[in-house]
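User: I'm new to structure prediction. If I give you an amino acid sequence, what do you actually give back? Let's try with this one:
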Amino acid sequence: MSNSHLFLKSGFPRAPLQNGVGRYVCQLQRITLKFCKNNGSSRGMRDFIENHLLDFAKENPGIVVYVKPRRHRTPVLVAEYLNGEREWMSCRNNTQEEISKWIDLLKTQNGNSSSLRLRKMWHTEVPSIQGPWTPFLLRSPEATGQTYPNAEASKPLDTPQTATEKLIELFRQQQLEAGEEAHDALNKKRAE
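Assistant: Good question. You get back a string of structure tokens that encode the predicted 3D arrangement of the chain. For your 192 residues, that looks like this:
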């Protein structure tokens, strides 16, 4: 087993600021595009800046976009989130479409949660005061002393009559009454 988890921060998974309860708040605060003006590995980043950056900035007014040219360096995306986390991504030899996809991915994330060692797989802001649920919680006390198989416990429950069954029953009663009236009328004619 690896000991790499010893150096990670630990905590509980939780939605930042209960995001999505009232309205969605984009967690990406600012993104920095670092690139070289001459290097061939920055061609995709330069193409993205020339063709798609203005559209991205207009579509996402809540995200601050910085463009930082650097000499003889590989292109890098640096995303900073509202929770203070920073995510760094190398974009060496990526096309403008790939960079656009990476930026969309960074926009939909809520920070670098992969560098967090989880103590539990779930967390709630409002824990239950009623205690944990168990399968025996709403079970009747008489069922605890029974031995199975039990003929009485396997009987079907008396369920109330459905509306369809009630209509079928009324229809049959009407047919019987109509049949009896027709039979009585026949007997009267024969008697006369």
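You can read the tokens as a compact description of the fold. Here is one thing that stands out. The mean pLDDT is 83.
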